[in-house]
Amino acid sequence: xxxxxxxxxxxxxxxxxxxxxxxxxxxxxxxxxxxxxxxxxxxxxxxxxxxxxxxxxxxxxxxxxxxxxxxxxxxxxxxxxxxxxxxxxxxxxxxxxxxxxxxxxxxxxxxxxxxxxxxxxxxxxxxxxxxxxxxxxxxxxxxxxxxxxxxxxxxxxxxxxxxxxxxxxxxxxxxxxxxxxxxxxxxxxxxxxxxxxxxxxxxxxxxxxxxxxxxxxxxxxxxxxxxxxxxxxxxxxxxxxxxxxxxxxxxxxxxxxxxxxxxxxxxxxxxxxxxxxxxxxxxxxxxxxxxxxxxxxxxxxxxxxxxxxxxxxxxxxxxxxxxxxxxxxxxxxxxxxxxxxxxxxxxxxxxxxxxxxxxxxxxxxxxxxxxxxxxxxxxxxxxxxxxxxxxxxxxxxxxxxxxxxxxxxxxxxxxxxxxxxxxxxxxxxxxxxxxxxxxxxxxxxxxxxxxxxxxxxxxxxxxxxxxxxxxxxxxxxxxxxxxxxxxxxxxxxxxxxxxxxxxxxxxxxxxxxxxxxxxxxxxxxxxxxxxxxxxxxxxxxxxxxxxxxxxxxxxxxxxxxxx
Length: 563
Known about the structure:
Four Helix Bundle (Hemerythrin (Met), subunit A), 17 helices, single chain, alpha+beta
């Protein structure tokens, strides 16, 4: 459950690819960061770079990139069609997963402070990272562009948020901010009419259309008392849209920029396009995603369409995404591969998962081998995952049962709860082996001198505490998952009640198995107060798991015993 943020710096160089590569090479040198896209523009003389990773690593990569740009780009010689005021013109941070906008703002300001202090470049914080309202708008921060910076910096009201209030002739200034994820999303229409596509785009986009006299398309433009054209707003907030004809596909499209998918997500944009299209005798036949998308956006879409079908939202992640793709026709024009289009999946390719990626046979052979890991901790986590998965299965089957249409939502909620538990438990299958290896690595550290011994002992204690924390978390998750099995044994599909029982057996075994790992690692821990605290908590979880297993099995056996 890593925190991920995206960074999209814009550099004022789009013609000399040698310079751009110097910048992107530094970005790629940072572990925990993946370069996603490099988009140079000759006319704009500007390159948009996109990379993603864990927050601290993204900040490091962004700083290195801004520093390199300040060294190799000379703004006094820059010409281009796009507004700009610095070698690194803008550098927004975007929350992708498991991180709030508030946290992202803190990282943006941390980067801004480092750039201003260490590189002596004036920094303006914009959008969500702005310290005052007038600086939220990037256009305000960049007004006057590079050429107007000397005069701007001399004004007290435009003192930079970080860095010196003096003109840096070579590097200019930089705007660093935090904004929501922008998705480029097109819907396909069963028409070739650009005019019809534009009409639909005007219906939905936030900016809407200009109001004309008597509602006529070609009538006189209506204006307010200040002489400004009156606009009729569209139905979707944070959406920019236009209609066009795509020669390659032979169809008209509505091309959209969803500038804040927390306000208007992709599935709502799709549905509204289809609604407005049908009002004009047209329909949306599919859609096209340009670039990448966060996992949650696809999961939200899939769950939205599953709910419309009165189907459980607790089905596998793969199934949820498949429903999203098929419901929005994302594969109409070309194949849609989630592992190439979803940001988190792209990053997951680089994270080693030696156990979970194995097939069942290989996993069994690996467990039976001569190495000490995987051992009881990983097996406990896997047993817990299988137990929770069984409870989830019964909930999904119950939600789908003929005649129980009025109950699907309740069972769906239980299925989602079980799914969350088994997904987390699967993570700990590899995490437990990682914890064991951390102890082994610490024990191999040099101990020739007193200082080395001190460092080694501290590393061993840290690794041991981690090796206790991991199976203890497995205990908690496995026990919490038993609520699903108990509910399914009580109200779920009777034909699958035995599966709820097996799930409870597996979950209880996971709790007790993980507790054995907690206890065996306690013997090596110097902090006996912490060890006793974990032992007491673990003992309580074990007792409760045994009682809950008993309650589940009583219900199951009462239903299935025939003698």
